Amino acid sequence: MSRRARVAECAAAGLLLILATACGSRLPEGDFGGRPDRAPAGGGAEPIRVGIVTSVTSPVGGDAFTGPRDGAKAYFDRLNARGGIGGRTVEVRTCDDGGSGVGNNECVHRLVDEDGVVALVATTSLDYAGASRVSRAGVPDIGGQPIGAAYDTYPHLYGIYGSLAPRNGTPGWDGKLYGGTEVYRYFKREQGARTAAVVSYNQSASAAYARLVTRGLRAEGYKVVTEQVDFALPNFRAAAADLKKQGADLVFDAIDTYGNSRLCEAMDEVGADVTAKVTNVQNWTSTVREDYKNAPRCRNTLWVTGASRSYEDTGHAAVREFRDGTKGLRTRSQWQVEGWAAAMWFTDAARSCARTGITRACVDRFMDSGRPYTADGLLAPVRHERLAEPPGTRRTCLSVARWEDARGWVGQGDLDDECFDVPQLPYDP
């Protein structure tokens, strides 16, 4: 992997990790009346057109951002096979923005202005430069991944994890976003962890995320060991040796998948045994054996947390439906689950408009209702509200799993039960 690619991946991972922990005022609907790019109100057999923007060919790599797209497309395929929405199929228009702001603006123009999509679904963009344009057009963007601050900035954008921010054109509250400490509370309460190491690069996005993790850990009473490695010539063995010496129970990171695999190899080499090497929902995939093939001991200490129900939880009806509908995909990932949930969210919104017509404005009214949404239990309750002041505390539920070579990702408690009232800490997007 080139240094440029690793810079991009590190930056993207840092942004995603930060914003996935974060918790709108709407423009008047009349401002968007009479536009020629509105979809027809329905009543015929004409398809309902939606768009999916994904950074497929970004510098991060071809598979990094495709999970939500694949999950959403699988859901719509299944929906269409069952008759669509009121007898109308959903026509999916996809666009690869190449991971650039220029490419993203081009995708937005094509899908919103030329193709006239009713909504965007499961957006996963490294640089969502066209977000303000989507908002101005009154196009609901449903269930996107918060890789940047757009879903906490603009009205009509509804990220997969929700937002309590005003969304008046400025990120969060006066430029500050807020994240909770539920992950650290979980490991303290359930695993008895007391010392945590945070490993980062000497690179801005990586270092910024590491500071946020460190602040959250300290707020939960942990002793924190910080390990920063040089991005160009990282000495992971030295970092692994020090975290072993310091007796770390947990290891958190602000580094890319490549760096994580090398860190794990170094931990195995020095004999650093930890309770958990904690990763994030982006790495919650079925490819762990391949990604960490040279670090078998560390690989089996991997834990992951998220806000969606594990794709391995086949005791749940909604997960079984997802698994059955994605049999054709060569790998499994939690981002596929979240893309599937985003498509379900749009479908429920569109069905609510069946009598009045499936338009952008009607779909947006459903999304902007303030009611929590769970996608039949696949998501922890997602809320989109607009609070004038940031919450001091918030109740947050977690999905938790650990990797075992013999069984894959094994759930550690139910999404509905692992809930915590935790403080919300500010950070800069």
Automatic annotation (TrEMBL):
Tell me one Pfam family matched here: Peripla_BP_6
What's the source species for this entry? Streptomyces fructofermentans
The record, for SUPFAM superfamilies, names:
Periplasmic binding protein-like I
Sorted alphabetically, which CDD domains does this protein's record hold?
PBP1_ABC_ligand_binding-like
Give the family, as the similarity comment puts it.
Belongs to the leucine-binding protein family.
Q: What is the lineage of its organism?
A: Bacteria, Bacillati, Actinomycetota, Actinomycetes, Kitasatosporales
- The transmembrane segments are none
Q: What is this protein called?
A: Leucine-binding protein domain-containing protein
Signal listed as a keyword: yes
Q: Which PANTHER family match?
A: BLR6548 PROTEIN
Signal peptide as annotated in the record: 1-22
Question: Any idea which UniProt keywords this protein has?
Answer: Signal
InterPro entries, per this entry?
Leu-bd, Peripla_BP_I
Domain Leucine-binding protein stretches: 47-404
